[in-house]
Amino acid sequence: MSDNKKMAPVTPVISDESEVHAEDTVKTTTSDGQTTIVIHRHYCKGCELCVEVCPKDVLHMVTATDRWEGAIVEILNMDNCNACMLCEVQCPDFAIEVYNIKKEAKKKEKKTVG
Ligand code: SF4
Ligand code: SF4
Hints:
Elements: E1 14-15, E2 25-29, E3 35-40, H1 49-53, E4 59-63, E5 71-75, H2 86-90, E6 96-100, H3 101-113
Parallel strand pairs: 1-2
Antiparallel strand pairs: 2-3, 3-6, 4-5
């Protein structure tokens, strides 16, 4: 058998289900609907940087035996999120994205004015 066997492409799935799989993309929103965090679990290597920088203890690591570090990130306290974006900025693998309605509106405003 050839060692050059091609890996099957990962198809991200947007999911709001509590039962998720490592290849999923998971979207979680604050109860006021203002902030959403998207975690691309298939990109997360479990380095824990996002957990360390989060000032509000929103994130934590869960065991994932198929991951490089044996863990991936998960949301623990979504309503604590202040949309500071530190987790998104620090993640070396673009595995986490933060969207805040007010910040997105400001960005659009700047584009229109500029
Ligand atoms: S946006 Fe800020 S408060 Fe929210 S999870 Fe990321 S680091 Fe934590
Ligand atoms: S910083 Fe990125 S790669 Fe590291 S644990 Fe967080 S989401 Fe995963």
